């Protein structure tokens, strides 16, 4: 009898009746052939592999992470509630001990969705992983979480949400932002002043193959993970590093993805992008599921794989090695850098940004202020104006906020109510409360 | 008139129905070592003095193939598989004569590796030399394109007696199950064929010329001739016959739980609006998970003859059976003895039953009556708990579209119907505990045979059209034909309907009595380079399990409440 050596849970929600547009890459058919492959392999009959029905995320679950303008329902379709809920279902099953690992094969994806949500960015409206993680933190009291984003595009949404959170290690491995959407994710992006170093960006050069990718994971990502000692490892499992992906320029294979999963040992994987729906997704997803369950994936070989044509050049190999060294050095020196940053005695740090919602065609201006704090992630305020709408103020008090940051956050909220804002939001995480004024 | 005959583990039940209902009922003991004789003696009893010319239809439900597989008394069968990317097909090995051959199809049924004809011929010669007469041929994604399977079958036909192809078993995707299903077909084929040819001949000798049907696990029937083509479909047909026997007593506007209480087990099934729920994939038998369509049933090891004992101060019932009840001279105490001790049942020697219950009582510190009551109560409690688990499982089944997720039908039973040998005794006790009304099915003791007699012929087809490739493939048949870009979902539904109708007629269905139902209806744009280049259309059609027309189930006083 075939048996999984790790109890593995799957949520499979292909949303066969939901699309951004009829020929959009994020369309009904996207997981069709993956479903065909998964069903045809009979993987759900393997002892120790269990399929779960996704739950629906609630408005409260979304508000624990996002500020949706004007409100949550405008940001979400039913499919978004199910997609986020599917990730939550896997998370709960892992933390309830029903399974050791799980994979939420859900769509739409989420890793480009930032804390503020005025619309869709990079096919994402809300961040499935963050909604899951914050629900799990609330329900199970876990604190230290690592997210390894292996989508080919920089996980800028997840980075934004955890930019100031020292309890969340966010590592994004992606194709260099100078050559691909969203154009961010450089090594110098290392997190806010209260969480410097817990955001790690590893922009790989185009045409990186299995060899370079797995080298980075083995030599750089794994040692950092080990040192961070997370209670939970989450993999944002985008599948667009594949050599056949139409939107990217990488040379990763299905067996490479399986090997990556074997190395990372994520508790929870959540599907992100990947738009080679016939040539890659069926095989990559099979590889990931088999690797999670501890089953042999040696015969998961794409029919159109030609190893010679995707062999990695020596230049790419050298570049990857240097990138690994740089990443490890940044990690080692993170405490010194943080100390240096605080040396000037500043109490608040501000940054202003323009954010483009390419999927919805909206442009937003943000003025972000974080309270520098040695004891917590720091109270955070975001003044946001979209090109179509009133300015809003969003105040975030992090889950383990100190007394001072809690007070600061509440003061900002009260002041904001008297100010020029169309709407004022408070995300009071210690109280698990969301207020709108 | 119709004869329905159901061979059970202990009894063979036979009924004779005329349009007004059952006119004759009989039970003969089953001889597991000679099912042929069990069937004939049952038929002789029911036909006694009647004109065989008046019989229009005979339906048989037997444990023949089930026993052969469970006891591993089958001739070795060969298996040839072609796999392609994915899991190692060696993991799905069925039997010692299992070989992987070159050749692969992808998820859209495109060839990604050609067959190696020499390799196949060489293997066929070897199988022939090894005396393997029956071979299963199964390809991954063969229900998307059966071309490899049909070609392999042609190539090996000269060397073996019979080939079973995977795509003929089901349109569903599941390569390991397809392998197991075709392997089981090939394994039980000789035994099934020999048996039913003998039955057919014996019936003709008795002057019975009516069409003979064989019961399937999905609650439907197929003609004897069709059953030779797919003998695996007869596996585990026993529970299906009983559940079909409950249908006449079920209202069509509510959901119902059916309990078939036997000697060793209780089978649980669910009817939604008068139609039994089918399993998503297929039966499991021994080590085999299959694509053999089946009613959704759960079995719990509690029945009238379950072994009752006290262990560490706690009462345990089943799941084993130690023989007949004490009252009938058996070795172990059973729920039947409890009914006898309570004075609710006259069977065998009440003194023996009461002595046994007293032993249980002593171990529990209860008097005889309380012990008997505890036994019955706990048995009922466990059966009802199993019902709840089954309902929860059905409602927890995954769905794949937003619509299904939001509109998902939840089974909300309004009633429990009980049938089977000890049903009459259990029913009032179940009623005392259950939250739902409990009714006894009329003719509860032979409802299984009535279910077989009245079950309609069922079958299913799966159609996949790929308009970009211009190809339509039909499973459960070998047909493949071209289509153009204008081919629509409506065309697919129509062609699938025609195919289903043809298949149903070939399986012995009544042309006027086909309750067709769409089981899958999906259509996707195939997009290449941001423009739509075709459509992928998937249609599943079935004839639902149900009762034939023109016959009324029962003339006996209905003991179930009217709808």
From TrEMBL, chain A:
CDD domains found in the cross-reference section: HDAC_classII
InterPro entries reported for this sequence: HDACs (IPR000286), His_deacetylse_dom (IPR023801), His_deacetylse_dom_sf (IPR037138), Ureohydrolase_dom_sf (IPR023696)
Domain of life according to the entry: Bacteria
Domain Histone deacetylase: 74-278
GO process terms (BP): epigenetic regulation of gene expression
GO molecular function, one term: histone deacetylase activity
Family that this chain belongs to: Belongs to the histone deacetylase family.
The protein's name: Deacetylase
TrEMBL record, chain B:
InterPro entries: ATPase_NBD, Hydant_A_N, Hydantoinase_A, Oxoprolinase-like
Name this protein carries in UniProt: N-methylhydantoinase
Domain Hydantoinase A/oxoprolinase: 178-458
GO molecular function, a single term: 5-oxoprolinase (ATP-hydrolyzing) activity
Domain of life: Bacteria
Coiled-coil annotated residue ranges, if any: none
A GO biological-process term: glutathione metabolic process
GO-annotated cellular components: cytosol
UniProt domain Hydantoinase/oxoprolinase N-terminal: residue ranges: 3-157
Membrane-spanning ranges: none
